[in-house]
Amino acid sequence: MSEEIKTNAAPAAAPAAAAARPERPARPFAKKRFESRRKVCKVCAEKIDNVDYKNFQFVKSFTMESGKILSRRITGTCAKHQRQITKAIKRDRNLAILPYSLPKK
Ligand SMILES: [Zn+2]
Could you tell me the distance, in angstroms and rounded to a whole number, from the CA of residue 81 to the centre of ligand 1? Predict the structure, then answer.
């Protein structure tokens, strides 16, 4: 009787471990969904000392299609360069190089 319990207890423990294992391969899959890439400041990466308003094609890349300035949180620019970019965008807007806003399509 006692032997029978022992044999029953051992297989009962094994399926539990086997059942817990299949969850593991699913985890890296779930992990990938939240994997975040390190954002790098575009201005620092291109080694530009000062953001120039005349380089509007570069400055434009920091605006949305609607003309809004993209936040640091989204573009990953550093504080110093974000300040320069906003200044350049506002200058370009005043010079009618960049739009203040564009209508939604
Ligand atoms: Zn920077």
Answer: 5
User: Could you give all domains of the chain from N- to C-terminal order, each with its CATH number?
Assistant: 2-33 (no CATH), 42-94 (4.10.640.10)
Q: Rounded CA gap, 41 and 77, in Å?
A: 4
65 CA to middle of ligand 1, Å?
A: 22
pTM for the model: 0.63
Distance 44 CA to ligand 1 centre (A): 4
* Gap between the Cα atoms of 67 and 60, Å rounded: 9
Residues with pLDDT less than 50, the chain: 1-5, 7, 9-10, 12-13
